[in-house]
Amino acid sequence: MKIDIIGDIHGCLQEFKELTVALDYDWSSGLPIHKDRTLGFVGDLTDRGPNSLKVVDIVYELVKTQKSIYVPGNHCDKYYRFLIGRNVQQKHGLETTVAEYERLSAKQQEKAKEQFIWLYENSPLYAVLDNAKLVIAHAGMKDAYIGRTDKKVKTFVLYGDITGETHEDGFPVRRDWAKEHTGDTWIVYGHTPVKTPRFVNNTVNIDTGCIFGNKLTAIRYPEMSTLSVPSTMPYVEEKFRPI
């Protein structure tokens, strides 16, 4: 299996295109296609960035044609709940995606809604690939949770190993679960912005904070080499906190 897994995009379409081109994907069809590799996504396609719905449209088409692996992130989960009519707070970035959505015509809204609901409902909570040698999960995965999809595991996959406490800025305190990973399975995840890809045991965090002005990163499997492109967004230092 040869797959290039991309970190949290958050609507950064330009960087997504630049990164896939750097990975030798061809966009002549309107989608990034490689002759013998596929793309993977750790979730959080939307929110905060300028082109969330176009990113969703591309990933939807890739997954629909079985050329890509996508797992949802917490921002994806919140956007899904908005689309199905749940009462969700439009903040922490969702307001930018909703603003994009509301600028569409009624017909375009219906199409965008159908696409994302299909993408969310037809994608796994996390992906176990290559005979369990690789797991893609938005915020991470404990060894003991592989194979489970109960509420406790869903919370972990979407939000990480949260303690229930919050920092002064309101963001949750998380335990460093990666230090406890002892298996041979590679866990590829994102969610928590880091300045450079963070390798700990057989885990790697590839959310290098593109939306916060750092860079967008992909990891190539099975090579486990990384490639990044710089962000065009303003740099926000405080978003990169120690884990």
UniProtKB/TrEMBL annotation:
Q: Which Gene3D superfamilies match?
A: 3.60.21.10
Calcineurin-like phosphoesterase domain location, by residue? 1-194
Q: What Pfam families is this protein classified in?
A: Metallophos
Looking up CDD domains in the UniProt record yields: MPP_Prp_like (cd07423)
SUPFAM superfamilies linked: Metallo-dependent phosphatases (SSF56300)
Q: Which GO terms describe its molecular function?
A: phosphatase activity
Where does the source fall among the domains of life? Bacteria
Identify one Gene Ontology CC term for this UniProt entry.
cytoplasm
Q: What is this protein called?
A: Bis(5'-nucleosyl)-tetraphosphatase PrpE
Source species of the chain: Mangrovibacillus cuniculi
As recorded in Swiss-Prot or TrEMBL, the protein's gene is named prpE
